[in-house]
Amino acid sequence: MRDGSGTIAWGVLATGGIAAAFTRDLAALPDAEVLAVGSRGAESAKRFGERFDIPRTYGSWAELAADDDLDVVYVASPHSAHRAAAEVCLRAGRAVLCEKPFTLNARTARELVDLARGRGLFLMEAMWTYCNPLVRRMTELVRDGAIGTVRAVQADFGLAGPFDPAHRLLDPAQGGGALLDLGVYPVAFAHLLLGEPAQVSAWARLTPRGVDENTGILLGYDSGAVATLACSIGADLPALATVSGTRGRIEFPHGFYAPDRFVLHRPGRDPQEFALADHGGAPSAHTYAFEAAEVMRALRAGETESPLVPLDGTLAVMRTLDAVRERIGVRYPGEDG
Questions:
Q1: Helix, strand, coil proportions of the chain in percent (round to 5)?
Q2: Residue 214: beta bridge partners?
Q3: Among candidate residues 50, 115, 38, 109, the one with its CA nearest the CA of residue 74
Q4: Portion of the chain with pLDDT greater than 70, in percent
Q5: I want to staple 95 with a disulfide (CB 3.0 to 4.6 A). Which of 55, 122, 123, 280 is the partner?
Q6: Which of 2, 33, 39 is nearest to 19 (CA)?
Q7: pLDDT at 337
Q8: 3-state class of 159 per DSSP?
Q9: Does the N-terminal peptide bond of residue 186 adopt cis geometry, omega within 30 degrees of 0?
Q10: Bridge partners of 56?
């Protein structure tokens, strides 16, 4: 876009598995180019650049952020580093797409949002679920009254492991545990449909190092609706989601966070299946492309926030996650807010 061609030039910050998956999916968008990659180590950036044919590689976040040819930087570091990495990019004048969870807590999330808004820069959490065409279709159906008034949301996400003792999911210093890594999806899904809860209850089994291994969450809303959610790094939860209303329900099968279909059930009618291929969806292998396309649409429109993934919603989800952590007794080293 900077060179007038219409192509959006991306920088990728970090070189792990999520960064690789996102970079692969950008290839599905003909108007996207990964121009640069940055890492904390020059060799890591070089290897990643060679792997994906990226012309510019940088051995520090600051060098990447200083590249004025970049339209936007995708932050894919471990979530304990999201705040610092995104801040480096914003202070250098870069637009930012930051992986979920946005930061470790609502206070640091608010600091990033205030920084971006104060500088008039685009910032968005990489909540790919919200950008999925099927999820967008589901919210349209709910808004139009297809299942009446929503009374309950159920969702879960868990991995059985076992994980190496050094794995980031078990490390408090890296924001480990089920909640921030996996539970953010059920919480965000409930928020999409019901907003911020009035009441938060939670219970968890903690590991000896103090991160949550198995967590149950009950959210209550002023409307009378409830959300029952679960996340785990010790059990293979089915990753299902159900939205139940006064006149029907919507069921998502395994992988509700990046769905390729859902089923609408209403009394007296045959179940109706909605498939990704019928709603403007790319092949499931390119699901990260949906959020990237939304970023590029917003940048071209001169928007600094996405209506699909609004920053106020990101902050509300972070507040809910904070409330859950308070109830289950999880706090991360060095956390000061």
A1: 40, 25, 40
A2: 205, 232
A3: 38
A4: 96
A5: 122
A6: 39
A7: 44
A8: coil
A9: no
A10: 36
The residue to which tokens 């003909």 are assigned: 30
Across-strand partners of 40? none
CB 258 within 8 A of CB 121: no
Structure tokens at 335: 């956390």
83-93 pLDDT, tens digit per residue, is: 999 999 999 99
pLDDT at residue 335, rounded to an integer: 76
Longest Cα separation, the chain: 62
Tokens of 320: 């809910």
For residue 260, give both structure tokens. 């390729």
One-letter amino acid at 267 equals P
Dihedral in degrees, nearest 10, Cα atoms 286, 294, 98, 134: -60
E strand map for 179-335: 199-206, 212-220, 226-232, 241-245, 248-252, 261-265, 272-275
Predicted model pTM: 0.95
Backbone angles phi and psi of 246, in degrees to 5: -75, -15
DSSP alpha helix (H) spans, the chain: 17-26, 42-52, 61-65, 82-91, 106-119, 128-131, 133-143, 178, 184-194, 288-301, 311-328
Distance CA 112, CA 84 (A): 9
Angle at 26 between CA 24 and CA 30, to 5 degrees: 125
Q: Which structure tokens are listed for 233?
A: 């790094």
